[in-house]
Design a protein that fits this description.
- The protein has 502 residues and is an alpha/beta fold.
- It has two domains: 147 residues, Rossmann fold, CATH 3.40.50.720; 278 residues, Dihydrodipicolinate Reductase, domain 2, CATH 3.30.360.10.
- The chain contains 15 helices and 17 strands.
- Helix 5 links the parallel strand 4 and strand 5.
- Helix 2 packs antiparallel against helix 3 and helix 6 runs antiparallel to helix 14.
- The longest helix is centred in the C-terminal third of the chain and has 21 residues.
- The protein starts with 11 loop residues before the first strand and ends in a 10-residue tail after the last helix.
- The relative contact order is 0.14.
- Bound molecules: NADP nicotinamide-adenine-dinucleotide phosphate (NAP).
- NADP nicotinamide-adenine-dinucleotide phosphate binds next to helix 1.
- NADP nicotinamide-adenine-dinucleotide phosphate (NAP) binds next to helix 1.
């Protein structure tokens, strides 16, 4: 992320592990195409598509070309497609066979000679998490992570980054045995979203909001990531993971940390990530009793989402019939610092809900003294600033206004900013900015080890309390609804309520 106009990235070979996988086809290769179409890839650029078993260059090129046809947001420019595909070569590398990485190294040297890529490499690990550490170890053993003579070697690691605090710390330690922290780019595609990045701009490029961005003026914050999709064919993965692990320490905490962080001294990766990590570190670590009191976990049961009939979560393919894995999670968190003491952050996320909707809503305190007291004004509501992330991208400020006419009556109105009204948007998979930033060495929108670990530390008590409680306290909600009644009760207890997602 930079305030400078974007220029083509420096010469680079993009080494794509998992090149025949779903993520590559849906998001990574289309993002490379979009960068090429926007002339942000350098002339000296090549892709090495890595698989563990022989795939064949023609077959791989056909597969990647086809993926662009399927996933390009706009109609693809065929000349750009063919130019990009012509830069793809294939390699076979399996971490359990160290020799294969030496062969990969020899192939990369040939590519450098052919494309003038000067030994600069990005290794993208679009592979399941079990492969992250062994692959990095094998790259290191083959000497491919050394940055000699000014050449760069960076590794992009996909999510999930660990499944709890211990595994995240172990993975960080394994990566750092081979790589320096500034060679590690832990991706969270939420940070590729323009509206998420815009939280930084909204807060720190305007004098208007920051003075009121604190406990004296803010009543509470709600963060919602609601999905209509159910678990589909990902039953085995999801049943071992659950809504909390899948969404909270990464995506929801990205939103939380951008809202809660202190102003960074500079717009650079270290300053911003230090402040974000500090905000996460200030989340109160709760006791087991508090974890159960301040959280709700639930599973969807049969219902209807639009035209789709959905069965019980426990009847989904590859889900245990007695599974206690949550498909919905809601948490009440406290941030123990001077800015946020006493301001609850309510987080909720779930699958199989009525509407796809991602937003951060900041609710301001009511006026200290109301001249309307004693008058029955039904419509009088608190002010909300709502940062809408998906599906619409924009910012809304809600306030009260007098309805025209002789009677004193009030209505809630909104000032609405829609991205689409002001800016011409480029077709994007959300990965473009992130890939470009990695190529230019800017880690601001990537996660640093301390931020990842602080996130896991904060959710760990909830994971443990839920595991110990088994199915005690596991709530249910109808697929296609707005979630379990217990989530409403979590806020009602504090005299508050969720903004509606239906
Ligand atoms: N798909 C998504 O939408 C999505 C979204 C966010 C994050 N992610 C993350 O992105 C990564 C890739 O996701 P995916 O859905 O593309 O996965 P995938 O399709 O299951 O796997 C991608 C490829 O990785 C290779 N592979 C499998 N196990 C491996 C191992 N132990 N070591 C090295 N290579 C291995 C396989 O190719 P070969 O057998 O030919 O080597 C496979 O085709 C995962 O970490 C996932 O959590 C995915």
């Amino acid at each position: 992320m930079s305030l400078m106009p974007a220029r083509p990235a420096p010469p680079i070979v993009f080494v794509l592990f998992g090149a025949n996988g779903d993520l590559t086809a849906r998001l990574v290769f289309p993002a490379l195409y979009n960068l090429a179409a926007q002339k942000l890839l350098p002339e000296s650029f090549a892709v090495v598509a890595v698989t563990r078993v022989e795939y064949g260059e023609k077959k791989m090129r056909d597969h990647l070309r086809e993926s662009l046809g399927k996933y390009c947001n706009e109609k693809c420019d065929l000349a750009v497609v063919e130019d990009l595909v012509s830069r793809v070569s294939v390699a076979v590398a399996d971490a359990s066979e160290p020799k294969s990485f030496e062969t990969l190294g020899a192939h990369l040297k040939e590519i450098d000679a052919k494309h003038g890529t000067k030994g600069n490499r990005i290794f993208y690990l679009a592979i399941p998490p079990a492969g992250f550490a062994p692959t990095v170890k094998a790259l290191g053993a083959a000497g491919l992570t050394r940055q000699t003579n000014g050449a760069i070697a960076r590794v992009i690691v996909e999510k999930p980054f660990g499944h709890d605090l211990d595994s995240a710390m172990k993975l960080n330690a394994e990566l750092r045995e081979v790589l320096d922290e500034d060679q590690i780019f832990r991706i969270d595609h939420y940070l590729g979203k323009e509206t998420v990045q815009n939280i930084l701009m909204l807060r720190f490029a305007n004098g208007l909001f920051e003075p009121i961005w604190k406990r004296e003026h803010i009543d509470h914050v709600q963060i919602t990531v609601a999905e209509t999709v159910t678990i589909g064919r990902r039953g085995a993965f999801y049943d071992a993971t659950g809504a909390l692990r899948d969404m909270v320490p990464n995506h929801l905490f990205q939103l939380l940390s951008l809202v809660a962080m202190e102003p960074p001294a500079r717009l650079n990766a270290d300053s911003v990530r230090s402040e974000k990590a500090r905000a996460l570190d200030a989340i109160r670590i709760v006791t087991p009793q508090e974890a159960l009191r301040d959280s709700v976990r639930a599973q969807y049961v049969a219902g209807r989402i639009g035209d789709e009939v959905v069965s019980d979560y426990r009847l989904e393919k590859d889900v245990a019939p007695n599974s206690t894995t949550e498909t919905f999670a809601a948490l009440k968190l406290s941030i123990d610092n001077w800015r946020w003491a006493g301001v609850p952050f309510y987080l909720r996320t779930g699958k199989g809900l009525a509407r796809r909707h991602t937003e951060v809503a900041i609710k301001f305190r009511e006026a200290p003294i109301s001249m309307f007291r004693g008058i029955d004004l039904d419509g009088l509501r608190s002010n909300y600033l709502v940062l809408q992330i998906a599906p619409d991208e924009g910012i809304t400020l809600q306030f009260n206004a007098k309805t025209p006419g002789p009677n004193l009556s009030i209505a809630r109105v909104a000032m609405d900013f829609r991205y689409a009204d002001f800016f011409e948007t480029q077709p994007a998979s959300g990965y473009e900015t992130l890939l470009y930033d990695c190529m230019t060495g800017d880690g601001l929108l990537y996660q640093r080890a301390d931020g990842v670990e602080a996130g896991w530390r904060a959710v760990e008590p909830f994971l443990k309390a839920w595991r110990d409680a088994g199915d005690q306290g596991l709530a249910l909600y109808r697929a296609g609804s707005s979630g379990p009644a217990e989530a409403d009760a979590l806020l009602a207890r504090d005299g508050r309520r969720w903004r509606q997602v239906v």
